Structures are given as C-alpha cells and as structure tokens.
Amino acid sequence: MAVKEKTVVIGVTGSISAYKAADLASRFTQVGFRVEVIMTEEAVQFITPLTFRNITGRPVVTTMWDLASEFSVEHVALAEAADIVLIAPATANIIAKIASGIADDMLTCTVLATKAPVVIAPAMNDNMWANEITQENVTRLKKRGFSFVGPGYGRLASGKMGLGRLTDLDEIYGVTLQVLGKKKGDLAGKKIVVTAGGTQEAVDPVRCLTNHSSGKMGYAIAIAARNRGAIVTLISGPTALPKPAGIKFVDVKSAEDMLKAVQEATKKADALIMAAAVADFRPAKPSSTKIKRVDIKDLTLYMEKTPDILGQVKGDFIRVGFAAESDDVVNNAVDKVKRKGLDLIVANDITEKDCGFGTDTNRVTIIDSKGKTEELPLLPKSEVADRILDRVGTLLKKR
Ligand code: C5P
Fold first, then answer.
1. Residue 151 to residue 162: CA distance in whole angstroms
2. C-alpha 307 to ligand 1 mean position (Å)
3. Which of 22, 227, 281, 371 is deepest in the core (most CB within 10 A)?
4. Which numbered atom of ligand 1 lies nearest the CA of 324?
5. Residue 73: is its pLDDT beyond 80?
6. Domain residues of the chain, as ranges?
7. Which of 371, 366, 372, 376 is nearest to 323 (CA)?
8. Assigned superfamily of 3-181
9. Is 186-398 in the same CATH topology as 3-181?
10. pLDDT for residue 33 is more than 70
11. Rounded to whole angstroms, how far apart are CA atoms 42 and 13?
12. Fold entry, domain 186-398
C-alpha cells in the first residue's frame, strides 16, 4: 500500500497516556503518512500541541474557533481528508459522546462527519472501563463498524493494577494499518499463509539443531500482507521478533509441526508463502533423555530427511517458495520452481553482504513457473515483501 498519499487523523483526548500519542504520530509520519492531529481541550492539559506540530510538520487543531486555522472555516475538512481516523488515547467521555452522536468539538465533528474507518484505543480507570454504560457504548460503536484496540491490563494512573491502560503502541499501530488495509488494500479479504523463521529439530530434551534464520523476511511479508488487507496466518519457528498485531500467529518448533500447521492453515488459503528456513534433515532418533558427556567418547548423529512441506501440501492456492543459496543461485532456484511445482520462487545469495540471514535488507531475484526472472536491487525487507506481494496479487487476479 502506498502510504505516501494517505491521511491519518489522530484524535488525542484527555488521559495521562496522551504523551504516547506523540510516538504514534511519529511512527505514521516516518513511514510517509500525512498526519493531522486533533486535540481536545482536555488533551492540551496533558501534552502541548507544539509536540505534535513538530513531529508531524502540520498545524494541530485544538479548537473550532481559531479563525487563523484552515480547518475552522471548513469544519468537516479533516473528516473528508481522512483515510483513517485513530483516537488514541480515547477516554470514556469521548466514547460516550461518539456513541451518542454528539458533535460539540472538532474531534467529535470529524468523527460524526467522516466516511473513513475509525479505530479507538481506550484509556481510562478500570472501573470506568468495566462500567456497563461504557460497555454498552463500546458494543454500540462496534456494531456500527468502529474498531477497538485494547485497553490493556497494567498499572493505571491511580497506581493500582487493572484493565484500562492504553494498549501497546505496536498493537495500536498494527491494527490501524490493518483496518486501513481492509478498506483500501489490494489484497483485501485474501487469505494468505506465511511461514517464517528457522525450525528446531530435537537431538535430546535439551539440545536441538537449527539455523541462522531471524524470521525477518517472513515477518515483513506477513505485516505487508496485513497492511494490504489480507487475512494473514503467520506460522513461525522460534524467533526474537515481536508477534505482529492483527495477524493469526501459530508458533511451531520442528519441520513436522510446521507441516501440520501449514496443512491446517491452507485448507482455505488463497496463497502460501514459505519464507521459513525449514530444516532439511533432523536426528532420526532423538534421545528421550539428556545425552551425557561422561557416557560417550564422541557422538555421531544419524540424520533423516524432514518432510518437504511445499512439495507435500495439497490444495488450490498460489505457492511461493524461497531459495537461500550460496552458489549458482538462479539455476538452483529455477530447478526448485519446477521440482516443487511453485508459482514463484524468491532466490537470494546468502553469502552476499547486506542480504539473507539476520539483515534488514535483501537483494532477491523473483522467478516464475516459466523460468522468467525479475532481479530486484538491494532493498529493505519491507519493500522486498511488497514487491513479492505485487506478484502474488497479479497471480491472484488471474485466477
Ligand atoms: O530445497 P530447499 O530447502 O532449498 O527449498 C526451500 C523452500 O522450500 C523454502 O520455501 C522452504 O520454506 C521450503 N521447504 C519446505 N520444506 C522443507 C524444506 C524447505 O517447504 N523440508
């Protein structure tokens, strides 16, 4: 999704967590959104408009009565400009006002007048959140298509623990992009299964054989697909990466686990993208007890082949494989497209600097089932992900 021409309107209301909205405004600005911030009168008590102005490079709206503001003349201008509205933090008060159709300040006017999707991230005292009046308002808004993210559980302004905190910012950011993708994305409604990370094959209850995969490429594909509106299942081997928001996450360890998860997830899939570095071999007879150093002089592991997931999984969906090669990259990949019956293979030379395992960039060649190649320059993995999804999108349209 090209975010460059997209406008996110961030509504900030009066909560101690209002300072966190500055981080959200920064994230959207950094990836290229035009960010328009509307603050309620109460929000201005907690954080200054100047903070948002400097982060977004845009004027900040705090009142309808500022004659110098371009928005006060056309009081629904932001409602029309918005591709998405995010209210974070959202107090019980703003939720109640929106649920009742009140439009007595710029934020509520904008929400009432907009046709864009609205995401609400509540933040309030736990009793206020649990109050049936608030819950009824939330249910009413959900029925009308408003999306909610959070609140989270943790320390509240009162000092006690409870459910009411502004939820994790990654979650708010991810869900907002997902909601926008569902409305405007080119993969809206497509079911895409992505695998990522390396598998772990047990030697004994303590040890395993694995590889250097960080999972970054697969996670980037899952996130990009979510942002383009796809319904994503991410099947991941152990990685150090945070679970992306708005994605069904299935964690697995071994190739065998991954096979079962892929078979289950692809029952209704439109595409399977296997970015995982699946072990090709595993110890044939893992020991059920820890192998002890004192018992043996040296150790030979007898290895057997793991199931070939891509080769084995049945169904009518687009199949995309990865080929991490250290030599003769393109020829090996062309061979793999045919052998595994793939629609596309993404080949990369893992010996190159800035490419492959653990890096944030990748240089890949995409090869189709006829052997036609598309060589991409060195790009951030997020952009490589979008280029792969462009190709998947084209294939899906042809079906
Ligand atoms: O043959 P090779 O392991 O290089 O093939 C790589 C592609 O096949 C990757 O997309 C990987 O996820 C997938 N694969 C698989 N099952 C295996 C090994 C690899 O699906 N056992």
1. 10
2. 9
3. 227
4. 4
5. no
6. 3-181, 186-398
7. 366
8. Flavin prenyltransferase-like (3.40.50.1950)
9. yes
10. yes
11. 6
12. Rossmann fold (3.40.50)
User: What tokens were used for 233?
Assistant: 């299942």
Q: Which residue has the higher pLDDT, 358 or 12?
A: 12
Question: Would residue 211 show up in a list of annotated catalytic residues for this protein?
Answer: yes
Which of 210, 308, 348, 367 maximizes ligand 1 atoms within 8 Å of its Cβ, making it the mutation to test the pocket?
308
DSSP 263-286: HHHGGG-SEEEE-SB--SEEESS-
Residue 110 and residue 11 in contact, taking contact as beta carbons nearer than 8 Å:
yes
* Closest-lying ligand 1 atom to the alpha carbon of residue 310: 20
pLDDT digits (tens, 9 = 90+) for 92-110: 999 999 999 999 999 999 9
Q: How far is CA 273 from CA 88, 138, 149, 263, 309, in A?
A: 34, 37, 28, 13, 11
Q: Which residues' Cβ are closer than 6 Å to ligand 1?
A: 255, 274, 276, 278, 280, 306-310, 321-323, 336
Report yes or no: 379 and 362 within 8 Å, Cβ to Cβ. Answer: yes
Return the number of other C-beta atoms located less than 10 Å from residue 57's C-beta: 10
Plot region of 354 (φ>0 → left; ψ -120 to 50 → alpha; else → beta)? left
Element (H, E) at 144: none
Task: Say how many Å lie between the CA of residue 344 and the centre of ligand 1.
Answer: 13
Distance of CA 322 from the midpoint of ligand 1 (Å): 7
